[in-house]
Write a structure and sequence with these properties.
- The protein is 28% helix and 24% strand.
- The protein is an alpha/beta fold and 425 residues long.
- It folds into 2 domains: 159 residues, Beta Barrel (Lyase, Ornithine Decarboxylase, Chain A, domain 1); 241 residues, TIM Barrel, CATH 3.20.20.10.
- Strands 4, 14, 15, 16, 17, 18, 19, 20 and 21 form a 9-stranded mixed beta sheet that branches. An 8-stranded parallel beta barrel has the order 5-6-7-8-9-11-12-13, surrounded by 6 helices. A 3-stranded antiparallel beta sheet has the order 1-2-3.
- A hairpin with an 8-residue loop joins strand 17 and strand 18.
- Bound molecules: pyridoxal-5'-phosphate.
- Pyridoxal-5'-phosphate (PLP) binds next to helix 10.
Length: 425
């Protein structure tokens, strides 16, 4: 056992996190153990300053490199009003992928003119909602999408500005479920189909095609695939606007060293300058790299069982973090009141759900785990709350914003009444 009080906390934790003299984790100046007592567990704790700092890194970074640009919050990563509000305040634009995300983005204060509507299967109702709300751009994904948007735009008597999503046949090293740039993808137009589709869209009286979009995948830890995607787009001719998507990876584990936001922007903007011609508007669309590391999840240990392994079961699991089950994603964990103690017993950190696969982290070292301990998993801000669900009738956790030693409830915990509120029989 070593004493880690003088060692920096893993960079998976939010910026500004620290371990106090008692060995308690502090996030946004608040004691994680006290937050658990005040708000209950499981709970998503968001360090607001971290969120703002990463937003500024994107917005200021792009402005410095290429003033004619915009950074869109890919809001599928963390679609809650308070997150939309903070990122709107930081001057970001927004990407939504459904009518529900659009409703949230509008409630969170985004100017509809700076909202981009995505989706590979948008319904007519979603498109009508988007156009009636005055959404600036719709990103077209298929010829049926084109026909549907034309019908809606014609009925409303508008000419809608659109981008066209291209699948550039470039994939990075990531899980198949979140790789989207390969030729055989459900998203966008392939390079072979794109020229005819672009001609068709350019000829439409109800659509105003301004440019191209691509998003090759998520949790990418290398920059080369982003450069290759820009080269692929350049093959399709010159356009005014290029949305180069999101996808920058983050550190879930101490050993992971993703490119920094400035390095990523510099590499992709340089590729755009070299390949796409002068005077272009360049957009980025980050989700994970904006929000993942802003947030930790707090759980309470309910049981510790020793058979072949040591099973440490907590009061959440696949209802608040599906990623380990969906993609085999790895996280780190610690006991929030004994952060100074490193090492410990090799454990299986299990959830409370009725599936053997509901294991949050396999083979994680925890220091003398016991019922009542508060376990923290960092880097849960992206696609955690977003994919939360009610399996086993478990109410979804609250979202708590912390900053400067103050905590405020942003989303309350669901109640049993909420679970029944839509049942009309
Ligand atoms: C079209 C689009 N843009 C942006 C993103 C955000 O990706 P990431 O969270 O990896 O930055 C996604 C993620 O699925 C996406 O589908």
């Amino acid at each position: 056992m070593t004493d880690a009080r003088d060692q920096p906390l893993s960079h998976a934790y939010p910026i500004g996190s620290r371990v106090d003299a008692r060995g308690h984790l502090q996030i946004g100046g608040c004691d994680a153990v006290e937050l658990a007592a005040q708000f209950g567990t499981p709970a998503f704790i968001v360090a607001e300053d971290d969120l703002r700092e990463r937003a500024r890194a994107y917005v200021r970074g792009l402005t410095a490199l290429h003033p004619d640009g915009d950074v869109l919050f890919a809001s599928k990563a963390f679609p809650c009003t308070a997150v939309y509000r903070v990122l709107a305040q930081e001057g970001m634009a927004c990407d939504v992928a459904s009518g529900g995300e659009l409703a949230l983005a509008l409630r969170g204060g985004f100017d509809p003119a700076r909202i981009y509507m995505h989706g590979n299967a948008k319904s007519e109702a979603e498109l009508r909602f988007a156009l009636e709300a005055g959404v600036g751009h719709v990103v077209l994904d298929s010829l049926h999408d084109v026909e549907r948007l034309e019908r809606v735009a014609a009925r409303l008597g508008v000419a809608q500005e659109v981008l066209v999503r291209i699948t550039p046949d470039v994939s990075g090293d990531t899980h198949a479920a979140i790789s989207t740039g390969q030729a055989d993808s459900k998203f966008g137009f392939g390079l072979a189909q794109a020229p005819a589709a672009l001609e068709r869209i350019a000829g439409s009286p109800h659509l105003r095609m301004v440019g191209l979009h691509c998003h090759i995948g998520s949790q990418l830890l290398e920059l080369e695939p982003f450069r290759r995607a820009v080269s692929a787009l350049a093959q399709l001719g010159e356009f005014d606007v290029y949305n180069l998507g999101g996808g920058l990876g983050v550190a879930y584990l101490e050993a992971q060293e993703p490119p920094s936001i400035p390095d990523y922007l510099a590499a992709v903007v340089a590729a755009a300058h070299a390949e796409l011609g002068p005077g272009k508007r360049i957009l980025f669309e980050p989700g994970r790299s904006l929000v993942a590391n802003s947030t930790v999840t707090l759980y309470t240990v309910q049981t510790v069982k020793r058979n072949v392994s040591t099973w440490v079961a907590v009061d959440g699991g696949m209802s608040d973090n599906l990623r380990p089950m969906l993609y085999g994603s790895r996280y780190q964990a610690a006991i929030a009141s004994r952060m100074h103690a490193t090492g410990g017993e090799l454990c299986q950190l299990a959830g409370k759900h009725c599936e053997s696969g509901d294991v949050i982290i396999r083979d994680v070292e925890l220091h003398e785990p016991a019922p009542g301990d508060i376990v923290v998993t960092p880097a849960t801000g992206a696609y955690g709350y977003a994919m939360a669900n009610n399996y086993n009738g478990v109410p979804r956790p609250p979202v708590v914003f912390v900053s400067g030693g103050n905590a405020r409830l942003a989303v309350r915990r669901e109640t049993y009444e909420d679970l029944m509120s839509r049942d009309v029989d």
